[in-house]
């Protein structure tokens, strides 16, 4: 089966990891600090806190933002469940805001209708790699006394109006899963414009440990002392993972260029094909494309999915609307809540997209799609 996504591992990546294994630090060592510094620079000069996954990054970001019982988080449903569930697990109430029918990105008009006095976070998802319209979302969040959060699991390395992903929202979370735009194996990070929020996130992901003597409440212990003021979890990334991440980061520009070339080849091939349309594009953005979305028309998505899988092409569907998951249905969320997202989902099909694909690979996928639609 030709995969829809795949990691791109070089000999340099392998050697970087092997060098750590030969050394003294396996976890929570100097390469964690180095990767966090490099991600922060990429993201506009803000503090980055690494994590064991993109989901962990979301969890610690929501915790730092104060999401919890009595608060609401506005979120699009066209995303992986973790964008919402990591706030729900803290006790926040999810308010789903519909997406733009063409791009799959959260609709600022729907957000305006969704925010209220209990809104703590307005979350947008950079679906497929395109940054959402944060220039429109930030004033809505500010007026509600809320923070913006960019779930940028798909978009690291991209820009909007010349500003990098990581500088577009108050908080930005990243994923370094193998199929994403760069990888640490499993891993992620959260980027914060506010230093106090970043420190809260750091302590949350470090089991809640406080190591600053100026903040100690117990003051008569020795130099070994550390204490916990708020409960946290162990979401610390390892030096092994960070060695891979640093090596991958050096090739992120090349990954981005090749992904753009593949997207352009798909666009040209699908432009004259009946029964399919492509994802709408936002002006002013320079995406790092994570997904190539073909929209299968006339109710044929499942038929085409199964035909392409039978032909050995590993297409995928990204994603079921979050509130369709039974865990949210059991909380009272009902189908029909976000009609644009549901219509988008009914047509969505992700074609293979990863940097190692050749032009011949792309043509093979296109041929299989044309056969499935015939």
Automatic annotation (TrEMBL):
Q: Name one Pfam family in it.
A: DegT_DnrJ_EryC1
Matches recorded under InterPro entries: DegT/StrS_aminotransferase (IPR000653), PyrdxlP-dep_Trfase (IPR015424), PyrdxlP-dep_Trfase_major (IPR015421), PyrdxlP-dep_Trfase_small (IPR015422)
Q: Which UniProt keywords apply?
A: Pyridoxal phosphate
Q: Which superkingdom?
A: Bacteria
This protein's cofactor list reads:
pyridoxal 5'-phosphate
Give the family this protein belongs to, as stated in its UniProt record.
Answer: Belongs to the DegT/DnrJ/EryC1 family.
- According to UniProt, the name of this protein is UDP-4-amino-4, 6-dideoxy-N-acetyl-beta-L-altrosami ne transaminase
Query: What species was this sequence derived from?
Result: Nocardioides humi
């Amino acid at each position: 089966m030709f995969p829809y996504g795949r990691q791109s591992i070089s000999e340099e990546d392998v050697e970087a990891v092997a060098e750590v294994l030969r050394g003294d630090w396996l976890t929570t060592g100097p390469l964690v600090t180095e990767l966090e510094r490099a991600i922060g620079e990429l993201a506009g000069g803000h503090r980055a806190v690494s994590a064991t996954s993109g989901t962990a990054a979301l969890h610690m970001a929501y915790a730092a933002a104060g999401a919890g019982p009595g608060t609401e988080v506005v979120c699009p449903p066209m995303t992986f469940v973790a964008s919402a569930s990591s706030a729900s697990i803290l006790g926040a109430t999810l308010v789903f805001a519909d997406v733009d029918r063409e791009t799959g990105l959260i609709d600022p008009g729907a957000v305006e209708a969704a925010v209220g006095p209990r809104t703590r976070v307005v979350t947008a998802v950079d679906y497929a790699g395109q940054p959402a319209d944060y220039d429109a979302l930030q004033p809505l969040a500010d007026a509600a006394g809320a923070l913006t959060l960019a779930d940028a699991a798909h978009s690291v390395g991209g820009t909007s109006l010349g500003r990098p992903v990581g500088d577009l929202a108050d908080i930005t979370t990243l994923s370094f899963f193998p199929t994403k735009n760069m990888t640490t194996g499993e891993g992620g990070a959260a980027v914060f414009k506010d230093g106090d929020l970043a420190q809260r996130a750091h302590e949350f992901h470090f089991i809640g440990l406080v190591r600053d003597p100026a903040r100690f409440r117990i003051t008569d212990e020795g130099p070994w002392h550390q204490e916990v003021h708020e409960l946290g979890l162990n979401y610390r990334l390892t030096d092994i993972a960070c060695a891979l991440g640093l090596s991958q980061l050096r090739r992120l520009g090349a990954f981005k260029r090749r992904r753009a070339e593949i997207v352009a080849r798909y666009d040209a091939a699908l432009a004259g094909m009946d029964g399919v349309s492509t994802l709408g594009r936002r002006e002013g953005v320079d995406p790092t494309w994570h997904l190539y979305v073909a929209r299968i028309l006339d109710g044929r998505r499942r038929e085409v999915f199964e035909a392409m899988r039978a032909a050995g092409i590993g297409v995928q569907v990204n994603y079921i609307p979050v509130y369709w998951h039974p865990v949210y249905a059991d909380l009272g969320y009902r189908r029909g809540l976000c009609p644009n997202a549901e219509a988008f989902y009914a047509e969505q099909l992700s074609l293979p997209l990863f940097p190692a694909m050749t032009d011949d690979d792309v043509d093979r996928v296109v041929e299989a799609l044309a056969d499935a639609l015939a």
